[in-house]
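We store chain and fold; example below:
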Amino acid sequence: MSIVNGRMGLKDSVKVSIVIPHVGRFSSLRNLLDALNSQSDYIYEVVIVSSAKNRIDHSTVFKSGARFAGARQTTSKMRFKTIQFEQLRIVLVKFTIGLNPGHARNVGIQIARSSVIGFLDSNTLPSCSWLKTSLEKLHNNHYDVALGSTLYKSSSKVGRIILASTYGFKPLASIPGTLVKCHCLTMVGAFLPNVRAAEDIDFISRLEAFDLAIYRSTYPTTYYNLHSNNPAFYIYKWFRNYSVCAPYVSLTLQSFALTFMLGFIMVLLGYLWNWNVAGWRTDSILYIPNFTKSIIALLVLMYCFCRGYIVPRSKAAFLKGNCNILDIPYILTFSFGLDLSKALAICNRIGLFLTR
């Protein structure tokens, strides 16, 4: 065992089991494994949990760099095999049924054999110092959790407009890139298995609720390149996610309800003011011409200013040449589409609840 500056060397301490849910893009998974191979000194195993939507044989991912390293196991819903891919030991679990991300991560947690578990998504790429830095915080600084942060990127103009309206250009706290000591999972519980989205928000909130020692990186631990530049894809994605995860984003729902109520009250006030306060007398000092129209116009201007400039600016959209002022109409149009899809999704969720 080596000692570095009076401390146990990281490579001789506990290594990480990395859990990766996977659906769809095999090229992204191959790129991810290549990136992890450069950090293999800190990795005990990589557990890939793949669901039914993957119709292609995984040998296309591993290619010639892989060989079987253990016995295969098959059940009615799952195939399990161990593969040696360059310097990585891969535990591949393939299900014949579809799994939500939280369900897939729970399966990976049950299979993982290290006392520290890391999480990635197949579409993310870790920073080159991710494991070294995060393990230092867990091992030498006695943190329980090293919370991940993902930086979203796009090289296209349309992609940057999408980022300005959604994820932004600053690293966001995320499950991809997170390392957790196993005893913490015993405390806070597993991921929500039955939702398509928001299981990460729920899990992070529980980590914080248990007052664990959490290290939050100021630098990105993972990177995500937008794989679609089609705005309609993200509008549908937001509708789908809000339709299924509304019970788990209560603060967002409260903000929508509050905004709606304030807007409704302002419009109602404008409608009733001249009638009840000024008695509809145009010569009264209290009479305000076109008050209702003015209130509606004010609300529209406030929305446009907020969603077209204030929110993108808070996400660093206008820094470092990401976007410019001339992009504001495009950002606003896409943001309106997203907000409309959220509103429809919430109405859809309420409708489903009332018809049960």
